[in-house]
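**Paired protein data**
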Amino acid sequence: MQLLTFSVEEAKNFSEQGCMEEWVHIFLKTVGENKEFSNGLKLERRYWLGPILISLNEINRCCGPEGNMEYQVPNTEWENQIKKFCEMLEKGWECPPLIVQHQSGKLIINDGNHRYEAMKRLGFKECWVILWDTKTPEHINKYVDDSYCRKKV
């Protein structure tokens, strides 16, 4: 078995083969270190799209030190992670696509909150994401024009 890189290009290849969900679960259970999220995703059918390039302004965090976050983390822990990701990005690291849920008309980051914040602080305007929705593929297909990932979900 070939080692996976969890790059955008690799995610695109999995998507082209109709295996986006498989890539997500492999990522989450290995380098993504988020087995609980992977297990939760398996509880019901999901519709997947991506990876697609999207504006950072269109997506929202659910994790951080702020009091309004669904998943709060201590400020010191948060800042240490952001610093690490900023340094990696400044050295040219291509981070894996963020995993983002369409929920009630909003795009919520489920995996990649630290990467998102690091990109935002470094002045990035866009990032690669994998979108998912539980109800219908139409909710996420509207985020794609004629770009790379206009595929059946």
